[in-house]
Specification:
The structure is a homodimer of 340-residue chains. Chain A has twelve helices and twelve strands. By secondary structure, the first copy, chain A, is of the alpha/beta class. Chain A folds into three domains: 37 residues, no CATH class; 128 residues, Response regulator (Rossmann fold, 3-Layer(aba) Sandwich), CATH 3.40.50; 136 residues, 3-Layer(aba) Sandwich (Rossmann fold), CATH 3.40.50. In chain A, strand 6, helix 9 and strand 7 form a beta-alpha-beta unit. The radius of gyration of chain A is 25 Å and the shape is elongated. The interface between A and B is large, with 45 and 45 residues. Chain A binds a DNA duplex (30 and 30 nucleotides) through helix 2 and helix 4.
Chain lengths: 340, 340
DNA sequence: CGGTTTTCCCGAAACGTTTCGGAAAACATA
DNA sequence: TATGTTTTCCGAAACGTTTCGGGAAAACCG
């Protein structure tokens, strides 16, 4: 491996000047800079990340820590995250590193160890809980991170998020405006922060639109087809008042809801209206539903670039204001809603 | 972060002696060693991987580089690899790091860069091709690696593999011994080394058992249900002589074969006998087939431990002889084969 | 021409660890 | 007493990089 010393010797320069030339410092002759960069390339020089990290505190590596949960193999979403972030950081000349925890391993010690060895410049946190302990932990440790979503009340850290409250409001309001009063909400798992936020939007829309607030119509769980199906069956069984419309946290849930309604002999939108939020994961297109599905849409794949931006910015020490981003979404009306 | 210096100061020892104590060197008083280790734990000391790597050449991190191919999201196998290796290396106090390449990015420059920055101690290579260029490249660069499988003729590197030649032989011979003469083989993609090796076993068994060697009965392709289905339809269409038995490279292929045969109105094993190799991936059990499937079985999940062993051993400089392992497999006879 | 600024460069220190080559002390051997 | 041996320790160098503080020479200014 070629080192700075090798280049310096070859060009009869000091190590200092070679380093400064390669890092585009100001006080180096333009012609020298070019010569240095040329020979660096010719000698196939790559800066030693360990040495660099040791002195400057930066290695150019960032990490993602994920738990190894049971269904991760089928989890299309997870691969999206890894592929998307990996690509983004590669494009910035950084290394993206995935660390998978054992199934029920506690997360904090893992971060502890990773921080202790000081190999990484920062972390991407996905799937934040309400009051996520990782955030406190990393902040106290003084490590850079960016959160996909927002957690807790004090939001003084870099994040990328979409307006989950407003999105749930819009979906629900779309239904109240068409006369629906009993609207079910198939939400995600109750411990996730975005789930709480969406619930607030749902409730606000019900209040604004004179919808009925019925606890049994708000359901939490994994947002997959199976839950969409079983939740639907449950909603339309028993004596409790039944909904005339269903808001789904994602399109996978909606797919299950469609199946459940079909099994029950109910039609969309004749008997029940359905709307959903669409992350635009591949292999499940809301427009290809029959009848096609009305959604709020914000492609998940638009998250990776701002996330990488924010983390890279945080590592460079940019001010917090530039490191908090909100993604937009669009409302797409299709054929899955009827007026009452 | 606590450093060696902090511990040394706290115990009024030299940095040298603290380092030696922590690394279990011989010339340190037993009582001192204990004292050092105790305070290290108390101060929550973790050795700085960068500093260590810089001087000793070891960071305790190993990597896996994977291409980001189209269907990786559905690829249960891929997650098995990541989860399995991650767990194994964690258990050895090492960090396992995943690097995902862009979809058609050439691999060698990625390794080049990863090696150049010198953050990793070694690599795990999966899915080797015949004469895989990565092997030559890493060997020339002097980087440790272990291969899941074997590639090329000169096998002078650490690997873990199963006896693919013999396994294909056994499956095929099981059929010739029961009177089958026209035996199809649904093999993997032609560029993989294990595919070539299995083909050799298949052909050897045909020769030994007086089977017919018919090129149109040996098919290559992705080993998924879709290919099993379409290959089966193809085998039983047209004028070419049809097989009486099918050997499948894995259970997913066999699932497709069963579906294809059912669609064609052919019964297993009445009309066609089927055998397969079983990697024991979750969610697809050969014993749950109807009729239950005769297989050679060697669980893929048994690979991760020897792979990690071999790579860790290579990094420690153990001799090559201890770093080459062969996994075993078992033959399980069930109800998918009939005698002619 | 004297003084000031600008341009370009360099030596040395530092980061946290491992390791080489001793070396003091205690103890045994002759 | 002199000589070796073992035990336990330490100073200093090294790994490859960045960066601080300076400094020589050239260019500019009045």
């Amino acid at each position: 491996m070629a080192t700075l010393k090798d280049i310096a010797r070859a060009l009869d320069l000091s190590i200092t000047q070679v380093s400064r030339a390669l890092n585009d410092h100001s006080d180096v002759n333009e012609e020298t800079r070019l010569r240095v960069k040329a020979t660096a390339r010719a000698m196939n020089y790559h800066p030693n990340a360990s040495a660099r990290k040791l002195v400057s505190g930066r290695s150019g590596m960032v990490g993602l820590v994920v738990p190894q949960y049971r269904n991760i193999g089928q989890d299309r979403l997870f691969m999206e995250v890894v592929a998307g972030l990996s690509t983004q950081f590669s494009g910035r000349g950084m290394q993206f590193v995935l660390h998978m925890m054992a199934e029920h391993e506690p997360a904090l010690p893992v971060y502890q160890k990773l921080i202790g060895t000081a190999m990484l410049d920062g972390f991407v946190l996905i799937d934040p809980m309400e009051q996520d302990p990782r955030i406190d932990f990393l902040r106290k440790a003084g490590i850079c991170f960016v959160v996909h979503g927002r957690s807790g009340k004090v939001i003084d850290y870099p994040y990328f998020d979409i307006e989950n409250e407003q999105l749930a409001y819009d979906l629900t309001a779309h239904l109240t405006q068409r006369g629906h009063r009993r609207i079910a909400f198939l939400n995600g798992r109750a411990d996730r922060s975005y789930v709480t936020v969406r619930e607030q939007g749902y409730l606000r829309a019900l209040r604004d639109g004179r919808g009925e607030v019925l606890p049994h119509l708000h359901l939490n769980g994994d947002m997959d087809e199976a839950h969409g199906l079983t939740d639907t069956i449950r909603l339309f069984s028993g004596d409790a008042p039944r909904p005339t419309a269903i808001v789904c946290g994602n399109v996978r849930l909606a797919r299950g809801v469609y199946q459940g309604l079909e099994a029950l002999g109910l039609s969309v939108p004749g008997d029940v209206s359905v709307v959903a939020h669409d992350d635009e994961l591949p292999a499940l297109r809301a427009s290809a539903f029959f009848p096609s599905l009305t959604v709020t849409k914000s492609p998940l794949r638009d998250s990776w670039e701002p996330l990488a931006d924010c983390l890279a910015g945080a590592i460079e020490g940019k001010p917090l204001g530039t490191l908090q981003r909100l993604g937009s979404y669009s409302f797409i009306e299709r054929n899955s809603v009827a007026s009452l």
